Automatic annotation (TrEMBL):
Transmembrane segments: none annotated. NCBIfam families: TAT_signal_seq (TIGR01409). This is Tat pathway signal protein. PANTHER family: BLL7424 PROTEIN, DUF1501 DOMAIN-CONTAINING PROTEIN. The lineage of its organism: Bacteria, Pseudomonadati, Myxococcota, Polyangia, Polyangiales. InterPro entries: DUF1501 (IPR010869), TAT_signal (IPR006311), TAT_signal_bac_arc (IPR019546). It comes from the Bacteria.
Length: 424
């Protein structure tokens, strides 16, 4: 494979596309990553927590017929309970919450401060409305895996990096085969391992490439240029790590989008080359026919969570997964003329995994889905307390990940929010 063809493939897959100024860790120090995998699931468009983990059923059959009804699909008296968690009795919620309630932390009544999609997504996934700030997934990957070939994988959602790490996008898993085995004529065919060059020739090519890189690096004096060159070089010669990834990929991929995304993230993690991954599914911006369109999308989210938690247990890494699920914002507490629900700034998040105690609910909303303040110590609802915001969750996530005091992370402070003991 010619160098230009390799770079073209790398560009298509999001590998090796490193802008000048990327501040990654020393590439030479990179090794298999053994910390937790941070998986972020984004419900794109603004989900409805009242149809999931913050249920608000209609008071009566008569109210269900009105536009002011909180939900037309169920009555308040039908709200389900699993452990300490309550859930809307729609779709597959009953089976999902009864199976996983002991692992789940639900945070309700989060005020995103916006009805704008762009601002809401940004606030949910980086903890501030300010533009240009990196996602938490980028920060944790920048600290723990900046030199890894696929330290931060993104399938959508908010993946701004602010140059703290390179982001890897994988539009087609077939590209991984070609990137991992650039010397094979047909890398997807295990029965045909014919190569362009002999192994000895490939060794000489790699040695010459490394010598050339060292010579070019020696000529540079600007640290940020040297860092960018090292990161790009790592992405070009990371075939051994990608071969390891191929070994962990399943023989067949799942049909459901979130499941496929999760399969790649889990394989990359087991290969030691991934720290964090964004998974995403769209269709939540249901301004029309809300109940018919929205509830099946929530089922996709629950199915994705179930798949990840189950697969992690089967693969023996359940104690090394941290799952964070969220959306742009919430949906209005009533219906519009098209039986849809519009944008609402109050939302919820669901978390599970290492360091997060399950069977808990933090935060609350009133009957019309307005947020209730919480006591900053006990986290119980308290008038005049603290209004939960995404920044509170992100401060706690940074501490949980052990990166709050890292110099890279300190460049992006969340000083406007209080420290809350969300994870104990």
């Amino acid at each position: 494979m010619e160098r230009r063809d390799f770079l073209k493939l790398a560009s298509m897959a999001g590998l090796g596309v490193v802008a000048a100024g990327v501040l990654s860790r020393d590439a030479a120090a990179a090794g298999p990553y053994a910390g937790p995998l941070w998986v972020h699931i984004h419900a794109s468009g603004g989900w409805d927590p009242t149809s999931l983990c913050d249920p608000k059923g209609a008071m009566s059959a008569e109210e269900q017929k009105t536009r002011e009804a909180m939900n037309r699909s169920y009555l308040r008296e039908a709200i389900g309970t699993a452990g300490n968690l309550k859930y809307a009795p729609v779709g597959g919620n009953d089976a999902f919450f009864k199976k996983h309630y002991s692992k789940l932390l639900v945070i309700n009544g989060i005020d995103t401060g916006t009805n704008s999609h762009d601002a809401g997504v940004r606030n949910t996934w980086c903890g501030t409305l300010r533009e240009g700030k990196p996602a938490f997934a980028a920060l944790v990957a920048g600290v723990h895996g900046g030199a890894l070939p696929m330290g931060f994988i993104s399938n959508g959602g908010y993946d701004t990096t602010a140059n703290v790490v390179a982001v890897t996008r994988i539009p087609d898993t077939g590209l991984l085969q070609r990137l991992a085995y650039p010397n094979r004529i047909d890398p997807g065919n295990e029965e045909n391992r014919e190569q362009y060059h002999t192994d000895a020739t490939m060794t000489r090519i790699l040695e010459a490439r490394q010598a050339r890189h060292a010579a070019k690096l020696e000529q540079q004096r600007l640290p940020h240029v040297k860092q960018a060159m090292s990161t790009l070089f790592t992405s070009r010669v990371g075939q051994n790590e990608l071969k390891q990834l191929i070994q962990y990929l399943p023989a067949e991929f799942e049909n459901a989008s979130l499941r496929r995304q999760a399969q790649v993230a889990l394989a990359a993690y087991r290969a030691g080359i991934c720290v964090s991954a964004n998974l995403s599914v769209g269709g939540f911006d249901t301004h029309g026919n809300h109940d018919d369109n929205h509830i099946p999308r929530l089922d996709q989210i629950c199915d994705g969570i179930d798949f990840i938690l189950t697969a992690a247990e089967e693969q023996g890494i359940a104690d090394r997964i941290v799952l964070v699920v969220g959306s742009d914002f919430g949906r209005t507490p009533g219906y519009n003329e098209g039986n849809g629900k519009d944008h609402w700034n109050i939302t919820s998040m669901i978390l599970a995994g290492a360091g997060i105690a399950g069977n808990r609910v933090i935060g609350a909303t009133d009957d019309r889905h307005n947020p209730l303040d919480v006591d900053p110590v006990t986290l119980a609802p308290k008038e005049g307390g603290v209004r939960l915001k995404p920044g509170h969750i992100h401060k706690a996530l940074r501490k949980l990940a052990g990166i709050a005091d890292d110099p890279l992370v300190e460049r992006f402070p969340l000083s406007e929010e209080e420290d809350l003991p969300l994870f104990g």
